[in-house]
Design a protein that fits this description.
eight-stranded mixed beta sheet; alpha/beta; VC0802-like; Carbamate kinase; nucleotide-binding
């Protein structure tokens, strides 16, 4: 079984294009996000209802009904199919209009947006029917529930999915709604805004899917060469995310690993990225850079013993919630690559200056090489990486905490040179790709 995560659909043309990849050879689940235009119009209805502007609500609903008609006109050619779809959509619009007789509250907003999710599913369902693709709509409120901690209640979800599948017709395509669910109080609710791909991963896990197919939204990724499919292991993907590249929501990877699912990210039909347990044997797969880093050097004044000194340093950084990207230490010194404001740096200096001699340098960058860097299997690889950077000053080297990542800290002015040097040495990046990367002026760059 495959799970297709369809989101950010703005037009009928885009919907047609995105559904072309759906296979009829095996059972599939489409996790559909509310169409962008539908969500925006219903959000406006919800705001007007909150302000008790009933006349405006009715006008907006009429406009919304016309907009749904435009979706049907652009997707369906059969007048009978259009009439049937319009009738089903009208039922949802009438239910929204009945809310005008009640006192508005936040639950009404969720109810309105839930109708938008169901209307989007109806439109897709009728379009697939016209394309002779048999399908069935699963209302996600019937099986998906959040616990009191606002996380999916997996035990409840699995139990309800098993019951639903017993009565579900034997059709190749199931359609369900993205993020729509019930909460612990049995009210209509939505998943927290943590990425639709995480919701799709939860769906894949409870339906025992083999593969999840979703969009790669990050503009920070530049693919190399002419290959159409690249592969990453779960561990390598986690290192990309830890390096600041927005591949997926971080919780997707451990969930997919536990369920044994592959995740396929599609940037364009020619550029795809597959994350699974499969190892390709490729040593270096990517070079990543993170900008805006601060280099902090602390050398103990001997006031505290070595273990108390290191503990004190990290306690202070934890106190001010400062993310630490790299850390190296010896018996009497600690070097850190962090990201924080100048005001926070001053507070940290005030707390630690009596224990350590402190040096700080801004405008630094972390450059990471990611792949299968296991030192036992690939002897000398880490030495080759460092040798490649011999023409520029390297402030820190971090290696050993992961077999998938070697990171160095360089000055911002050397970031681009370091990234390109590594790409030439290990990734065979053609020169025209360098021009694309330079023109984008990315905060974080990723090359694969």
């Amino acid at each position: 079984m495959k799970v297709y995560n369809l989101e950010n659909i703005k037009s009928a043309t885009e919907l047609k294009h995105r559904t072309e990849v759906i296979s009829m050879n095996e059972r599939s689940i489409i996790v559909l996000d509310t169409f962008t235009g539908i969500a925006q119009k219903l959000q406006a209805v919800s705001i007007s209802l909150f302000h008790l502007d009933i006349e405006k609500v009715m006008n907006q609903l009429q406009d919304f009904e016309n907009d749904c008609g435009n979706w049907l006109d652009n997707l369906l050619s059969s007048e009978m199919q259009k009439a049937e779809a319009a009738k089903e959509i009208k039922v949802h619009i009438d239910q929204i209009s009945r809310l005008c007789n009640e006192n508005p509250n936040i639950i009404d907003d969720h109810e309105i947006m839930a109708h938008g999710a169901m209307i989007s599913s109806l439109i897709l369902s009728h379009y697939l029917e016209e394309c002779t693709k048999k399908n069935f709509i699963l209302n996600s409120c019937h099986f998906m529930r959040l616990g009191l901690d606002r996380k999916p209640d997996i035990k409840y979800v699995k139990k309800n999915v098993e019951e639903l599948m017993k009565d579900c017709p034997d059709v190749p395509i199931l359609i369900t709604q993205s993020r729509l669910c019930k909460n612990a109080y049995d009210e209509v609710d939505f998943f927290p805004q943590i990425g639709n791909e995480y919701y799709a991963t939860v769906i894949g896990a409870v339906f025992h899917a083999d593969e999840i197919i979703t969009s790669l939204r990050s503009d920070e990724i530049c693919f190399r060469g002419m290959e159409h499919t690249r592969t990453l292991t779960y561990g390598e993907a986690e290192n990309f995310i830890d390096s600041g590249i927005a591949l997926l929501h971080p919780e997707c990877i451990p969930l997919a690993r536990t369920a044994g699912m592959a995740i396929v990210l599609i940037k364009t039909p020619e550029d795809t990225l597959r994350i699974s347990s499969e190892k390709t044997g490729t040593k270096v797969k990517a070079a990543v850079s993170r900008r805006g880093v601060v280099f902090v050097k602390l050398r103990s004044l001997g006031v505290l013993t070595s273990y108390l000194f290191i503990g004190k340093v990290f306690d202070v950084f934890e106190k001010y919630k400062v993310p630490v990207y790299l850390a190296t230490s010896s018996n009497v010194s600690v070097s850190l690559a962090v990201k924080c404001s100048n005001d926070t740096l001053r507070l940290i200096y005030r707390e630690l200056h009596k224990y350590a001699e402190i040096g700080m340098e801004t405008e630094m960058s972390v450059v990471s090489v990611i792949g299968d860097l296991n030192w036992e299997k690939h002897t000398g690889l880490e030495a080759r990486i460092i040798e490649t950077l011999k023409e520029m000053p390297v402030c820190m080297i971090s290696y050993g905490s992961s077999t998938h990542n070697l990171s160095v800290l360089v000055r911002e002015q050397d970031r681009e040179k370091a990234l390109m040097t590594l790409c030439k040495a290990f990734l065979d990046i053609p020169s025209e790709k360098f021009d694309v990367i330079k023109q984008t002026q990315l905060q974080d760059s990723f090359v694969m």
